[in-house]
């Protein structure tokens, strides 16, 4: 499965995950083609067809006609955007790799600026959204809350409001390829290797064609993946909560014993008893749930299944696996 070590003869590899994007691909190719021609760099576009059930593969094959720099990796089913990006990085031959959305929400015009920073010596140039006008209030609020909470919890900060759209030097790509975890929280994985990082700003436009593939439920699960794969704080915090409760209980017990000794025992106390029992019961279930989250993830990792399966590749030269 793992492709051979490529010879880095190309300047820029664009990595484009696509899932039911037949409408967006021609416009994307057109605009990216124009931008890259202006920049005068050699480039390739690696499309990863993430198990689309529309005509995406056919549209991609059409787009390959007359271009020898377009590669298509066809997944055996939908593995998710994160897996698609992983595959793209495995197949990329460029000196730099840039994951980019096909819906033109990541403006290709920024690539020139990114390359300039790269030539100045930066290894990672991420594109930061300065406004989230195209997103709803709810989405931008939840995004803000997520970044704040995440960066408070985990060791490696992820830059706020930076998506997957970023330039990465070959060094960084190779580092990422050595991160074998099944749980691909790309924002975190991308941040983990470090290196010299900088950012460029842009305004995120609305989607060109089609609709977003991410709903709130998906995003929520995505956030949980992110937290649990880069932080063990949720596991540890319960020791502190437990210690606190034990301390308070001890003080309360001393108080109860003293009161019973002085005033004798009384039957009432149903309310306080009930509150304590329910509260602790709830807390224990919550804690168990969190341990379960981690255990489940450990199970996934231990099984060691491949991150993605390729049905076929197109446009990668003689030996189609490269
Ligand atoms: N995508 C994918 N697999 C999925 C979902 C999305 O490859 O399971 C691709 C999609 O085709 C697009 C990119 O990921 O190129 C971003 O998706 P989308 O625009 O729906 O996300 P949003 O911009 O709303 O965050
Ligand atoms: Mg989009």
How would you sum up this structure in a few lines?
With 322 residues, the protein is α/β, with parallel strands linked by helices.
Distance between the termini: 10 Å
Question: How many distinct beta strands?
Answer: 8
Helix share of residues? 40-55%
Class from helix and strand fractions: alpha/beta
Q: β content, as a range? A: 15-25%
Q: Please, how many helices?
A: 10
Uncertain residue ranges: 1-5
Mean pLDDT comes to 82
The general outline is elongated
Tell me about the largest β-sheet.
Answer: 8 strands, mixed
Cα radius of gyration in angstroms = 25 Å
Along the chain, the helix and strand elements come as EHEHEHEHEHEHHEHHHE
Q: Strand order, biggest sheet? A: 7-5-6-4-1-2-3-8
Hetero ligands? uridine-5'-diphosphate, magnesium ion
Description:
The protein has 322 residues and is α/β, with parallel strands linked by helices. The protein contains ten helices and eight strands. It has helices at residues 25-39, 56-64, 81-91, 110-119, 137-153, 170-177, 186-191, 216-230, 233-263, 270-303; strands at 10-18, 43-49, 70-75, 94-99, 124-131, 162-169, 197-203, 310-314. It has an eight-stranded mixed beta sheet with strand order 7-5-6-4-1-2-3-8, sandwiched between helices. Helix 5 (137-153) runs parallel beside helix 8. The longest helix is centred in the last third of the chain and has 34 residues, at 270-303. It is elongated and about 95 Å long. It binds uridine-5'-diphosphate and magnesium ion. Residues 101, 103, 105, 207, 212 line the site of magnesium ion (MG).
């Amino acid at each position: 499965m793992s492709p051979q070590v490529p010879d880095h003869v190309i300047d820029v590899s664009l990595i484009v995950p696509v899932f039911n994007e037949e409408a967006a691909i021609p416009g994307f190719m057109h605009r990216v083609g124009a931008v890259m021609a202006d920049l005068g760099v050699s480039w390739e576009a690696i499309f990863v067809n993430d198990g689309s059930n529309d005509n995406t593969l056919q549209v991609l094959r059409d787009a390959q006609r007359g271009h020898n720099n377009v590669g298509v990796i066809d997944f055996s089913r939908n593995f998710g955007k994160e897996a698609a990006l992983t595959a793209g990085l495995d197949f990329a031959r460029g000196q730099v790799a840039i994951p980019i959305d096909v819906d033109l929400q990541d403006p290709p015009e920024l690539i020139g600026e990114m390359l300039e920073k790269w030539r100045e010596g930066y290894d990672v140039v991420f594109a930061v959204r300065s406004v989230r006008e195209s997103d709803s209030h709810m989405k931008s609020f939840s995004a803000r809350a997520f970044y704040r909470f995440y960066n408070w919890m985990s060791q490696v900060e992820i830059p706020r409001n930076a998506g997957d759209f970023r330039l990465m030097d070959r060094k960084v790509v190779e580092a990422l390829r050595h991160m074998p975890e099944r749980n691909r929280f790309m924002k975190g994985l991308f941040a983990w290797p470090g290196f010299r990082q900088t950012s460029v700003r842009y305004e995120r436009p609305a989607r060109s064609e089609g609709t977003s593939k991410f709903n709130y439920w998906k995003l929520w699960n995505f956030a949980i993946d992110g937290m649990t794969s880069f932080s063990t704080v949720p596991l540890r915090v319960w020791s502190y909560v437990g210690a606190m409760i034990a301390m308070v209980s001890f003080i309360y017990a001393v108080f109860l014993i003293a009161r019973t000794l002085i005033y004798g025992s009384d039957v009432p106390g149903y309310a306080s008893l009930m509150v304590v029992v329910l509260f602790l019961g709830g807390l224990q279930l919550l804690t168990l749930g969190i341990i379960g989250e981690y255990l489940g993830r450990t199970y996934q990792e231990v099984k060691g299944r491949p991150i993605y399966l390729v049905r076929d590749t197109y446009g990668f030269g003689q030996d189609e696996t490269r």
